[in-house]
Specification:
The chain has helices at residues 4-17, 23-35, 52-57, 71-78, 118-128, 149-157, 169-178; strands at residues 42-46, 63-68, 87-90, 103-109, 129-139, 182-187, 196-201. With 204 residues, it is α/β, with parallel strands linked by helices. Strand 2, helix 4 (71-78) and strand 3 form a beta-alpha-beta unit. The radius of gyration is 16 Å and the shape is globular. The model has no long low-confidence stretch (mean pLDDT 91).
Length: 204
């Protein structure tokens, strides 16, 4: 079985140097996210990696906490310029304690398809948000990538790949709405296996 923090620790240095694959889409998602931000917001981002997205967003809100299960990812994030604007810490969102209805926005990018139980994680997000709070995510949906399943199984067995969850875009939308979110933004760039960007709002 893959030791998940160790897996991400091992790839963190190369991950930090890897350029963004689709800069136009990334910048569009940054812009759309910031359009929902207010100066009084308390924000949490989980699976923050080396902190690039967190550092873009932190100046726009009152507090920004960013967590990741990989100590090496967090070490790299803390070494970046302006890292003192973000509360970086090593933590597993699924296991960490969060006071109910204590946050205005939670972000999860490139992570839901890597979790063992995405619906349970989304339910925890919903509980942690204040009424009217936002869940913003960007997710690669692998449900139609049937050809990847045998490769992923071998990679996981060898400890070279993390476990993957297999769902499509409609499955993901249903996960949010079934937990009580209203989807107020839904965007996906053209192309095969492009991540879907969703903004879900918890009812007032």
């Amino acid at each position: 079985m893959t030791d998940i923090p160790r897996f991400w620790d091992k790839i963190a240095p190369k991950y930090a140097l890897r350029p963004v694959g689709d800069m136009a889409s990334y910048e569009h998602k940054l812009t759309r996210t910031q359009a929902h931000m207010r100066p009084d917001m308390d924000v949490l981002e989980f699976a923050c990696g080396t902190g690039t997205t967190a550092l873009h967003h932190a100046p726009h809100v009152a507090s920004y906490r960013a967590v990741d299960i990989s100590p090496e990812m967090i070490r790299i994030a803390k070494a970046k310029e302006s890292a003192d604007q973000v509360g970086f810490e090593v933590a597993d969102f699924d296991r960490m304690e969060i006071a109910p209805e204590s946050l205005d926005m939670i972000q999860a990018h490139s992570i839901l398809h890597l979790l063992p139980d995405p619906p349970a994680t989304i339910a925890k997000v919903h509980g942690a948000l204040r009424p009217g709070g936002l869940f913003i995510s960007s997710t690669t949906c692998l449900g139609k990538a049937w050809w990847l399943k045998p490769i992923a199984a071998v990679g996981k067995a060898l400890g070279k790949m993390p476990a993957l969850s297999w769902f499509n875009e409609d499955d993901l939308r249903a996960m949010l709405t079934s937990q009580g979110f209203e989807i107020i933004e839904d965007w996906q760039p053209e192309g095969s296996m492009k991540a879907v960007f969703l903004v879900g709002r918890k009812p007032e």
